[in-house]
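Reminder to self: keep the SMILES exactly as supplied, no canonicalising. Ligand is adenosine-5'-diphosphate.
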Amino acid sequence: MSSGAVLLEVRSLTKRFGGLTAVSRLDFDLREGEILGIIGPNGAGKSTTFNLIAGACAADAGEIRFAGQSVLGLPPHRIAARGIMRTFQHNRPFGGMPVLENVLVGAHTRFRSSLWRLVAGGGTAEEERQRRRAEELVDFVGLGGLHGADVGTLSFGQGRLLEIARGLAGEPRLMLFDEPAAGLTPGELERLAEIVRGIAARGIAVLLIEHDMRFLLPLAQRVVVLNFGAKIAEGTPQEVRRHPAVMEAYLGDAAAL
Ligand SMILES: Nc1ncnc2c1ncn2[C@@H]1O[C@H](COP(=O)(O)OP(=O)(O)O)[C@@H](O)[C@H]1O
Ligand SMILES: [Mg+2]
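Structure tokens returned for the bound complex:
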């Protein structure tokens, strides 16, 4: 499962906001088809790490290599074009657009295809392939039957699934999830876990940021633990759960353990 080649290499990654070091000399690797979790208390630097990898903010120091090439300093659309897609901590649907069109935006983002022809049909063979794939992805995340529904009519949990389908439409080699479990019902959490496993089974590497360890630990093959921007532990879910520094960091937040 995690025996693939190293896909993402993060080295000494550092980001400061004024006097605050949000990410501090962070090192980790992610292999092809692997599910790697990043956990840590609120403010630990998880989202900032994602923003650095996705190009949404600039690092102060360090290196990020993807598939053997540096992606540090590239704008977000160039990073997406390399094969890194993300979901956001808060759903960001394109309002007033049907479900399928929202997913097609993901293909458009990655491949710069004509969004109009993707939506209207009658495009190139490649655009038709992207359209068929978008339809298949809507079904894969469990929104089959809702292809034409306006996104405004979706529940919160369905909106989260839509975000995932939109990311996958860009045919990523690495998918970044920022707290995907937040706000979901127990039934939706089970569905989400199945989807994440299905994504990894397609050979896509998954980087999963999660505050909720009960959701993450059964899913991840390996876990990196952050606190105040620094890595305080790394290992299998079993190893990090018992790590004294992790228990210390989560002290007073027993519900998250
Ligand atoms: N754009 C920003 N400007 C200033 N401080 C920020 C910004 N983004 C994040 N921070 C700070 O950086 C730290 C890490 O934040 P974040 O990466 O969002 O943590 P997490 O996702 O683990 O909860 C926090 O102290 C947060 O307040
Ligand atoms: Mg966050």
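Points to follow up:
Strands lie at 6-17, 20-31, 35-39, 61-66, 69-70, 84-86, 174-178, 205-209, 222-227, 230-235.
The domain at 1-83+172-257 is CATH 3.40.50.300 (Rossmann fold).
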